[in-house]
Amino acid sequence: MLDTVCGAGRWLSGLTKRWLNKGGSEQQIGRLQRRVEYLESKLADCKQRNTDLVQQLAQQREKTRQLYLRTKEYAARLNVKG
């Protein structure tokens, strides 16, 4: 669904012309334009949140990798002492 929002301005422009030719009201077109603007802003917010989550995931993976290595080293030291 998010793909359908991308480029919605161009889609709305063509739709506006067709709508006016068929007798659609400018009030309805204004409502559609506001809706598209709202959806585009929500899409931008979602993309930013997704970018943030990807960065957090990468950091968490790195922490997990380091913890695994420390645990592995600790286990190796215990085996040497035993």
Keywords:
82 residues; single chain; 90% helix; coiled coil; mainly alpha
Content of β-strand: under 5%
Helix-strand makeup class = mainly alpha
Average pLDDT: 83
* Strand elements, count: 0
**What is the domain total for the residues?**
1
Cα-atom Rg, whole angstroms? 26 Å
For the termini, the CA-CA separation is: 59 Å
Q: Which percent bin holds the helix content? A: over 70%
Keywords: Coiled coil
Coiled coil: 29-63
Question: What do you see in this structure?
Answer:
It is built from three helices and no strands. It has 82 residues and is mainly α. It has one domain. The protein is rod-shaped. The termini are far apart. The mean pLDDT is 83.
Summarize the structure.
The protein has about 80 residues and is mostly helical. It has helices at about 1-5, 10-20, 25-80.
Topology:
Layout: H1 2-5, H2 8-21, H3 26-81
